[in-house]
UniProtKB/TrEMBL annotation:
GO cellular component, one term: ribonucleoprotein complex
Similarity comment: Belongs to the universal ribosomal protein uL4 family.
The gene coding this protein: RPL4_0
The protein, known as: 60S ribosomal protein L4
Keywords: Ribonucleoprotein, Ribosomal protein
Presence of the UniProt keyword Transcription regulation in the record: no
Length: 462
């Protein structure tokens, strides 16, 4: 492989090198380019330096066609005061800014004057060494030379014979062309192109109407959904609605903030909002348990009996609606039993856990809490339980536990108070009823107490 490789999509012979254009269009473009070369304003606008030239278009004698050396051509341009346009080309020589440097288009420069001749008697060789200067024959005028880049207004130097031959090539407004059949020059729409001078003339100013100085300004179209002021014009109540919505939004935010603070506050404050009785009782016990565990000083005072629990109001019990019972066709209303709600259970549990002694009448049976009682300890000699000390310092009397009878299988009767003076007394639950071998009667009237069951009742009565 060669360094750099082959060219991508190389040029072929069958490439479409040219584009078809109508003959009339090409002639129209050529005539326009020739006409533009005679306008000093257009020529100067393309960058040509023609401030010192005697006239535009510049027409010289036919002796220029006899110049054979570059020196003679330079002397001719200096006499015509067109050499400054060539010096501009010398100064503009530079490298192309782009990839064209690598595509055989490395250097670029400005364009100079174009010399149009009728007969070549050495003129082409004389001017080909001058940078920017081009030569062309009258019958072979090229549009790319007259208007390089498609921009009309190039600086053209004509010889006398070439300039006279233009009438025969393209004709005039009076005579048609001799070399081009059925072709006439395009006629201009205006004979005088100074439009401002025509408008400001007295002949036109006296006829036309006076200018209307009144300016009618239309109201701009505004979107009422985005423009509050415009919405207020269309709907005056929109401002009130907007203020109300802002007010309600502010209240909504404040309520959310209050509820957030309530939720993030002390966990016991949430108990009143809970309506589930089962969950409330469980959660309240758990909360109090955690609260007391984290306060060792309070635990010590509680054991000593000096703790002062916080006072709480007794909650009222809710009265539930009457329940209707159906008795045949008639209906009977009965009062439902009162049951404490969540708040009542909360107060009862609080009292049961903190306040010692018996609960108040009417309250539910809770767990007795107060001063912690020491458990009875066993005597090392006798093996029996020691009597518990009372508040006065005296020993408490405890009831003996009932024992089972080995023969009958029932419980032995507890001895009376007179026989058990001085012995420890222990509170116990009701004695267990022994299982009878006889079958139980189905009727309540037939059921009679056995003699074994009457003995403990008689002892208790004594």
């Amino acid at each position: 492989m060669c360094r750099g490789g082959r060219m991508f999509a190389p040029t072929r012979v069958w490439r479409r090198w040219h584009r078809k254009a109508n003959v009339t269009q090409r002639r129209y473009a050529m005539v326009s380019a020739i006409a533009a070369s005679g306008s000093p304003a257009l020529v100067m606008s393309k960058g040509h330096i023609i401030q010192e030239t005697p006239e535009v278009p510049l027409v010289v004698g036919d002796k220029v066609e006899e110049a054979k050396t570059t020196k003679e051509a330079m002397m001719f341009l200096r006499k015509c005061r067109a050499w400054s346009d060539v010096l501009k080309v010398y100064k503009s020589k530079r490298f192309r800014a782009g990839v064209g440097k690598m595509r055989n288009r490395r250097r670029i420069q400005r364009t100079g004057p174009l010399i149009v001749y009728n007969k070549d008697q050495g003129l082409v060789k004389a001017f080909r060494g001058i940078p920017g200067a081009d030569t062309i024959q009258v019958k072979k005028l090229n549009l790319l030379k007259l208007a390089p880049g498609g921009h009309v207004g190039r600086f053209v130097i004509w010889t006398e014979s070439a300039f006279r031959k233009l009438d025969k090539l393209y004709g005039t407004w009076r005579k048609p062309s001799k070399f081009k059949t059925n072709y006439n020059l395009p006629t201009p729409k205006m004979t005088n192109t100074d439009l401002m001078r025509i408008i400001q003339s007295d002949e036109i100013q006296n006829v036309i109407k006076r200018p209307n100085r009144k300016v009618l300004r239309r109201n701009p179209k505004l979107n009422p959904l985005t423009n509050k002021k415009y919405m207020g014009k269309l709907n005056p109540y929109a401002n009130v609605e907007r203020k109300l919505s802002q007010h309600y939004q502010k209240i909504k935010i404040e309520r959310k903030e209050i509820s957030r603070k309530k939720k993030t506050g002390f966990f016991l404050s949430m108990l009143m909002n809970v309506k589930n009785l089962y969950f409330l009782t469980y959660f309240y016990k758990f909360a109090l348990h955690c609260f007391l565990n984290f306060q060792p000083e309070f635990q010590k005072r509680r054991r000593q009996g000096t703790a002062i629990p916080p006072k709480m109001k007794e909650p009222r019990e809710k009265v539930e609606p009457k329940k209707i019972k159906f008795i045949g066709k008639k209906m009977k209303r009965t009062k439902k039993t009162k049951s404490g709600d969540a708040a009542a259970m909360k107060g009862k549990l609080h009292k049961a856990l903190f306040k010692p002694g018996k609960p108040k009448p009417g309250a539910s049976k809770g767990v007795k809490t107060g001063k912690t009682k020491p458990l009875p300890s066993k005597d090392s000699k006798t093996g029996k339980a020691k009597p518990l000390p009372s508040k006065d310092g005296k020993t408490k009397k405890t009831k003996p536990l009932p024992t089972k009878d080995g023969k009958t299988g029932g419980t032995k009767p507890v001895p009376s108070k007179a026989k058990q003076v001085g012995k420890p007394k222990i509170e116990t639950s009701k004695p267990a009823i022994p299982k009878l071998s006889q079958p139980k009667s189905t009727h309540k009237k037939d059921a009679k107490p056995t003699p074994k069951q009457d003995k403990p009742k008689q002892a208790a009565a004594k």
